[in-house]
């Protein structure tokens, strides 16, 4: 699902469709004079754009990897546990990184990944 806001007002956005979620939020905050910061506007803009351009991209890739791995988990884990390789170094580092976030909340439902990581340790 793609966020979308059709703007038909008499301002600079007349007849425009805004499809970026960050742009929609910034537009509405400016239009209604709400949801914006009273101070430190630069940090506010930076946070919104960082989230939309950096964090969203990371989360999409992570979600796709978890979704793809779920379908082939037993084959993948069996294959990776037979011999330690460079792939284990790379994947192990990524799993370690994901476990740092909110005490492993990203991977808590993926027991096969947690077992794999424990075997690496």
UniProtKB/TrEMBL annotation:
Domain of life per record: Eukaryota
Regions crossing the membrane: 48-68
Location of the GST N-terminal domain: 1-36
UniProt keywords, alphabetically: Membrane, Transmembrane, Transmembrane helix
Keyword Membrane recorded: yes
InterPro entries: Glutathione-S-Trfase_C_sf, Glutathione_S-Trfase_N, Thioredoxin-like_sf
Protein name: GST N-terminal domain-containing protein
Lineage summary: Eukaryota, Metazoa, Spiralia, Lophotrochozoa, Mollusca
